[in-house]
Design a protein that fits this description.
The chain has strands at 7-8, 42-47, 56-60, 66-72, 76-81, 88-94, 104-108, 114-119, 123-128, 135-141, 147-151, 157-162, 168-174, 184-188, 195-199, 205-211, 216-222, 226-232, 245-251, 258-264, 269-273, 281-284, 293-296, 302-308, 311-318, 325-342, 347-354, 360-366. By secondary structure, it is mostly beta strands. It has a single domain (21-366), classed as Neuraminidase, CATH 2.120.10. A seven-stranded antiparallel β-sheet has the order 2-28-27-26-25-24-23, with no helix packed on it.
Length: 367
C-alpha cells in the first residue's frame, strides 16, 4: 500500500450493523482577515498549493478549532489545523501517481483525536491518532471512491463509502476505542457514485447518496433497521431525470430532520430536500456542474454553499428568512470543491481553493 502517514510539515452505544472541502505552510503567520468581500466575510490564506483537483472537507472541535482534509495535486492528502493558533499542515498520504486522497473526509472527537478516511486505487483507508500514536488500516480492499465519516455523541464513528469494484454504497461503524464492524450494502449502484453521512440526536446514521445505476437520489436512515428511499428521480427504466448528484446532508440533532442538497443534472439546478416526506425545492436554476454543501445553525436553519461550472463566484443560500434566498458572493473560488462548518457561536467557516493560484483559503462570517 503506497498511502501512508508521513508526519508534520511545520447517546447510545455504537451501532455495529452486520453486513453492515505543496507549497509553504501558509499558516505559520496567517494572513489575518484578508480582503473579505465587502459583505461581512473575512478571508484568510490557509496553505499554498493546488487544491482544485480533489475534495476539501472540514470539522470543528468543542473549542472552535478547525480541522481540514484536502487533496493537494501531485503532493497528496493534507491534514491542516489551527488548533495551535497557527495553521499547521501534515501530509497524510503521499500521491504516488494514483490520486490517493482525492476522496476524503475528517472528524474530530471529544478528546481532540483525529479520524480521517480516504480512498486510493486499492480501496478505503482510515488513519487516526486515537491511541496517541498515528495508526492506519484498510477498511475496504478492492477499489474505492467517495467516502465520508462522522462522529456521534458517544464518539462512535459512522461511515459510508463507494466500494469501487463491487459497485455498492456501504455503511460501516466503529465504537470509541473499538474496532470497525462488518459493512452493510445500502445499494448496488453499478457505477461510481457519491455519498454523505450525518447522525441525529439519537446517534442514528442518516446517509444521502447518488444511486448512479438509476441516476437518482437515495436517502437511507437507521431507526432499528435500515430504510432506503428514493427522494428524486425514477426507480424504473429509463431512469430519467438524471438527478441526485453530489449530495450533502446535515441532520438537526433536536428534531432529527434531514437537510439534503444536491445537483440535478437533467434540470441543471441545485435543489434542497427535507427528507422522505418532503418534495425537493429549487435553490438556484441554470447552474452548471455543482457540488453543494450544507450546514445547520443553532436554530436549525440551513446554510448552503456551491460554486458553478464556468463561474468562479461562490453562491450562498439560506432558508433563515423562511424562504430560500441565494446570494452570489464576491469570493472567487478555483473549482466546485469546498467545505462548510458552523461553530457553536453560529460563525460560518468555509474552506475552498482560490481562483488564481488554487491555494487553500478559509472564509468566515458571524451570523
Amino acid at each position: 500500500m503506497s498511502g501512508r502517514f508521513i508526519g508534520p510539515l511545520a447517546v447510545i452505544t455504537c451501532l455495529i450493523i452486520l453486513q453492515g472541502c505543496s507549497g509553504d505552510s501558509g499558516g505559520s503567520n496567517p494572513t489575518g482577515t484578508g480582503d473579505g468581500d465587502g459583505g461581512g466575510w473575512s478571508t484568510q490564506l490557509v496553505r499554498s498549493g493546488s487544491f482544485a483537483n480533489g475534495e476539501i472537507n472540514a470539522a470543528i472541535d468543542a473549542n472552535g478549532k478547525l480541522y481540514v482534509s484536502a487533496y493537494d495535486l501531485n503532493v497528496g492528502l493534507q491534514y491542516v489545523t489551527n488548533k495551535s493558533g497557527s495553521w499547521v499542515a501534515t501530509l497524510v498520504a503521499a500521491d504516488d501517481g494514483d490520486s490517493e486522497g482525492t476522496h476524503n473526509d475528517i472528524a474530530v472527537d471529544d478528546g481532540g483525536k483525529i479520524h480521517i478516511m480516504y480512498s486510493d486505487y486499492y480501496g478505503i483507508r482510515y488513519i487516526t491518532d486515537e491511541t496517541g500514536d498515528w495508526s492506519e488500516e484498510d477498511i475496504w480492499l478492492g477499489g474505492g471512491g467517495s467516502c465520508c465519516i462522522v462522529l456521534d455523541g458517544a464518539n462512535c464513528l459512522h461511515a459510508t463509502f463507494d466500494d469501487g469494484n463491487y459497485s455498492d454504497i456501504r455503511y460501516i461503524s466503529k465504537p470509541a476505542g473499538g474496532a470497525w464492524g462488518s459493512s452493510v450494502a445500502l445499494a448496488d449502484e453499478w457505477i461510481n457514485s457519491s455519498c454523505d453521512i450525518d447522525v441525529d440526536g439519537s446517534n442514528h446514521p442518516h446517509a444521502a447518496f447518488n444511486f448512479a445505476g438509476h441516476h437518482n437520489l437515495r436517502y437511507a436512515f437507521f431507526d432499528g433497521s435500515w430504510n432506503v428511499v428514493t427522494l428524486e428521480g425514477a426507480d424504473d427504466y429509463p431512469y430519467i431525470p438524471d438527478t441526485g448528484w453530489t449530495p450533502s446532508i446535515a441532520v438537526d440533532k433536536d428534531t432529527d430532520a434531514a437537510s439534503i442538497v444536491f445537483w440535478n443534472s437533467t434540470d441543471n439546478r441545485v435543489e434542497f430536500s427535507g427528507g422522505a416526506a418532503h418534495a425537493a425545492v429549487t435553490i438556484k436554476s441554470t447552474v452548471g456542474w455543482a457540488r453543494p454543501c450544507v450546514a445547520l445553525d443553532s436554530a436549525g436553519y440551513a446554510h448552503v454553499f456551491f460554486g458553478e461550472e464556468g463561474s468562479y463566484a461562490l453562491n450562498y443560500a439560506t432558508n433563515k428568512s423562511g424562504s430560500w434566498v441565494n446570494t452570489v458572493l464576491s469570493i472567487e473560488i478555483g473549482e466546485e470543491e469546498l467545505a462548510v462548518v458552523i461553530d457553536s457561536a453560529d460563525k460560518i467557516h468555509i474552506f475552498y481553493s482560490s481562483k488564481t493560484y488554487l491555494d487553500l483559503y478559509h472564509a468566515s462570517l458571524q451570523l
